[in-house]
Every structure is written in structure tokens, then in C-alpha cells.
Amino acid sequence: MSAGGVLAYAEAEHAKRLEAERNILKAAYQWAVLHSPDRLPAGDKRGRERAKPAGGAGTPLITEYAAAAFGARIQTSPYGAKKLIADSVDIALRLPCIQAGVDAGTARPGHARHVAEATRELSESEAAWVDAEVAESCDGRLSWTRFEALVEGKVAAAAPELARLKEEAAAREVFARMSRVNKHGKATYTIHGDALTIAGIDAAVNAVAESAELKALMPDATLNERRVAAIALLANPAAHVDPAVGPVKVKVKAYLHLYGDSPIARLEGHGPVTTDWVAHQVSRLTGARTSKPVIDLNNQAPVDAYEIPSRMREAVHLIHPGDVFPYAANTSRRMDLDHAIPYSEGGPTGVGNLGPMTRTHHRIKTHTGWEVRQPFPGICIWRDPYGAHYLVDATGTRRVTGTPGDQSPTPAELHFSEILINYLVA
After folding, report:
1. 284 in any annotated domain
2. What is the DSSP string of 305-368?
């Protein structure tokens, strides 16, 4: 096969795999229908009494051991089969938009099942709201970690009282202990606390690890080695080679995203939290507190320089919540900002020509024939070296053109693609 042929073959086989997974999901639902306790003989009282809801609220009962035979046929445990059946029932009866996507062949089974599991504790109406909010993204346009974050936020917004109760329960789950996973002379110590406390510990460790004194004492050490030494200093100064290093005062920066009157906010790097939790945590802080206003994303004038000002860097992060390479997963702030049109070729240093990428994706774009344009800030159109186009925006990645078949694109096809990209930019 040619390179284009291999890509086309892999794409087709991947589509078959997804279709097989959808069919198994449908079979699991039918298995639940066949194992309603109403189908048991009238005298089987035990079987009827031990039947349980197949999925979340509003789903019918299923006999106790129905999952065992089904699981054996698909080479999984009764527990795994029970989860599959529960997911299939919830999708069919509680998530109509996602079910429509499964029937149409657009929703990925794994994404559909994740929503089913995440909404199982919700009421029927709450689950239906989440379903309508996330169904479009079940086609795989978002990387898995970003899809998980989307669903987590919508579930919290659908049931803020449940989110509050879970926060209260989690608040009692604090500990600091040595892990049991210790071998080869190494051990692990785990601290489990609220997000802001952990952020403060991490900031303190970084500050000590990067201090000139500790670098001088450990000139050949890696950053991670200095971080471990910093923890030893902060937790037990007598155990450190030089107790005179420290203490330090640290600053912790938390990025909080609020949405109108919603009782749910998103703490960047952590996930959804209730606004009550935010108010409580802020009230516990000591020392000076500074809050910064929202940046006006529509008022970011380009600068006549290759270097990117911090305010513009912040704006680009808000416009692009993650790595803009197709199907990329990274959502951190520690990424390169790439000029879609290189600065050396006249590309401006402005929000409409900048996109965050990991160093690896940045190098792929620079050296391997991938091209990208932004027709509007926040919308990226990519072309791979074989002529396929992808649209990347805040909702994820979608294919917007077909592939050239089983062969590499001709010069004429590449020229047409370039015209398409330039047209979108114009």
C-alpha cells in the first residue's frame, strides 16, 4: 500500500471497530429486555425479589445474575458485563440525544458509556439535560481527558446540590500517609487535601527547589531531586543538609471561571466546584488577596514583535482552552504559542495568528508538512501532509474534508487545498 492507502485502510478498520462496539451496546440493551423479572415463571419469587434496576433512576428491573452469561460471551467478568448492560439501558432510556447518535453511527460507544456512568446518580430530568449538553461532543472531537472534564462540569451544573454534598463528603477525606507501594529502596508519601492547600504546598516546594541556596548545595541534582529535598526541608528541617535554607513566602495563583448565575464554577487544573466551596476556601486564606478582572478578548491589538506579551498570552489561553493540534489533549498553560503564519513570513503576533501547542506538536507543524490557518480567532483549520483537513475549536476536532483515497495527493490537489485554506482566512 501507498502511504495514503495505509491511512485509508486504518480509517476504515477503525470505523468497523466503532460500529462493532455500537452493536454490542445494542445487544446488551436487548439482553436487559429479555431478562426482566416479569419474564420469570410466576413461582420464582426469589428471582423477582432480588431483581435490581438495570441502570439509573427510571430504568426497569433486571434479574440478578443476567450479566454472567452475557459477560462470558464477550470475554469479560459478570461485573464488567453488568456495567455494560447498565450503560446500555441508561443510554437507551435516559440519554435520548446520545442514543440517536449511537443509532446514526456518530456517537462513540466509549464516550456514550462514560456519560451514562457519570449521570447514573442524577434524576431522569437532570440526566436528560446533561445528555443534550454533551451529545454533540460524543463523536470524538474532544480528546478523552477534555471530554471527561466537559462531562464532569455538566454533571455538577445539572445537580449542584449533589455536587455540594460530594464536596462535604470529600472534605472529610483528608490524610497524609506513606504509601504501601514501596520497593527497590524507594517509598511514596501521599497528601490528600483541598485543592488550594495542595496548590500552596506545590508552590512552596517549587520556590525552595528553585532557590539559589539549594541549587548551590545540590549543583548536580535534577529539579525533581531538588523538589524532594525541598519537601524534606519544609516538613523536617533537621533532616536537610542545610536547615538555614528557607522558610519562604509563596504566592499561589488560582484561575477561576464563573458562568453567570450558575452555582458551579471551574477551578482551572482541578475541575468543577460549587461557588459555596470557593467562598469558603477564599475566606480561609491568610495574607493579601488580589483578584483580577476578566480580560476583554475582543480588544487585543497585535504587537509588532515576535515576543508575546503576558496579557496576550492569557487571552490566547482563554480563546483556546487546549492544544490546537487535531485531537490533542493538553490543557495546561505551559505550552508553546505558535504563529500559524510564521512571524518571519509576515504573520502577526496577535490572537488570530497564535495557538497553544506542546513542543512535540509544534515541531510536527514546523517540520513535517502540516499547515494551519485561523479564519477567526479560536477556529483552526489544519491540513495534514496527505490532504485531509481538520477543524479545531473549543468544542474539539472534526474532519471537514475527505482523504485523497489510496494515494498521496497530486500537486493539483495540494494546490486546491492551499486555495481552500487561504479562502477560509480571507
Report:
1. no
2. SSS--HHHHHHHHHH--S--STT-----S-SEEEESS-GGGT--BSGGGEEEE-HHHHHHHHHS
What pLDDT, in 10s, does the model give residues 3-19? 989 999 999 999 999 99
User: Which of 239, 265, 285 finishes a domain?
Assistant: 239
Q: What is the 3-state secondary structure (H, E, C) of 175-194?
A: EEEECCCCECCECCEEEECC
Q: Is the per-residue pLDDT at 125 higher than 60?
A: yes
Residue 182 has pLDDT above 70, yes or no: no
Same domain, 7 and 94: yes
Regarding whether 141 and 17 lie in a shared domain, the answer is yes
34, amino acid identity: L
CB–CB of 155/118 below 8 Å? Answer: yes
Classify residue 244: in a domain, yes or no.
no
Q: Where is the domain boundary, 239, 254, 286?
A: 239
Measured from the Cβ of residue 152, the count of other Cβ atoms closer than 10 Å reads 15
- φ, ψ for residue 362, nearest 5 deg: -60, -45
402 lies in the same domain as 318: yes
**C-alpha grid cell, residue 104:** 446514526
- The domain tally of the chain equals 3
pLDDT tens digits, one per residue of 359-370:
999 998 988 889
292 domain-assigned:
no
> Rounded to whole angstroms, what are the CA distances from 233 to 1, 92, 206, 208?
60, 56, 12, 9
Range of the domain at 399: 310-425
* Mean pLDDT, residues 192-203: 86
- Residue 367's region, left for phi above 0, alpha for psi from -120 to 50, else beta, is alpha
Is residue 266 pLDDT above 60, yes or no?
A: yes
> Which of the two residues, 319 and 295, has the higher pLDDT score?
319
Return the pLDDT at 286: 64
Give the whole-angstrom CA distance, residue 179 versus residue 103: 46
Q: Are residues 353 and 399 in the same domain?
A: yes
The answer to whether the CB of 301 falls within 8 A of the CB of 357 is: no
